[in-house]
Amino acid sequence: xxxFDSWFQELAADAFALHLTGPAIFFSxxxxxxxxxxxxxxSCTHPANxxxxxxxxxxxxKGEAN
Length: 66
Known about the structure:
- With 66 residues, this protein is mostly helical.
- Helix content is 74%, strand content 0%.
- The chain has helices spanning 3-21, 23-35, 49-65.
């Protein structure tokens, strides 16, 4: 499995969680990242934590505009 596939699966899981829980996923995922030590989180299997938070935050802002 390529890094892109793994990243896509993680981002898809984030999108699904956003659909199910709304803003709660943004705050809980941010807190989870902080508990992990606040590092970048970037790896072959996971996109960077900041990227994941930014995508979730941008999607939440789009929802407010609708």
